[in-house]
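ok so for the tutorial part 2 we go from a plain amino acid sequence to predicted structure tokens. step 1 is just haveing the sequence, like this:
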Amino acid sequence: MKVTFLGTGTSTGIPQIGCKCEVCSSSDERDKRLRSSVLVQEADTNIIIDCGPDFRQQLLLHPINHLEGVFITHEHYDHIAGLDDIRPLGKCVIYAENRVLSSIRRNLPYAFSDNPYPGVPKLSLSEIEPNTEIRINNLIIQPIRLMHARLPILGFRIGEFAYLTDVKIITQETIEQLQGLNVLVLNALRHQEHVAHITLKEAIELSREINPQTTYFTHFSHDLGFHYEIQNTLPKNMYLAYDNLEILV
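step 2 — the prediction. this is what the tokens look like for a chain of 249 residues:
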């Protein structure tokens, strides 16, 4: 199974509009981050987790001509705003919790009207719940309950790979569900405390508790610092992901 990091930035991306800080001005391509999303590929099956406002740009860099499913962690704009750009890929199923599906319907009403006009995205909505597995060809996807401050959201485990973003609170029960991973992807917004995201220090501690073979951190703000500097401070087998990174699981 191949996983491609389409984006590794937080909701504002890096560089952030109007910002002149050193990170936003960096010439290192690893410091340029689109909104967070991953493409998971197994044989002829393509799925993505989250579909933010940079989706078109991301798929121009990583072209595919079909998409079997889009799994949405939660309804915030930086995770659903690219759904209209799925149009050229034909029919696609969107998998999310009922609350999130309702938000998608409100944001793209033209895609779900009784008489849609030609050219609208052909989206079908499929409600999912934590701990109920979804099979798409050879992939088995297990939604995992997480908390983004007070908002219930989903992470996803696919075999020995797990993708958790926008985490603030995770229960011991969920940690037990994540044992035996080869690769964990986990958000690490910045160094300073945040009301809805864990810090890099907290992400390192959580990774140690889950104990995967390898951890990649994602969903960074410009406040985290330069990629090369932070990477040199990380424990063994922990890495900062960056846009366009491809890994095999």
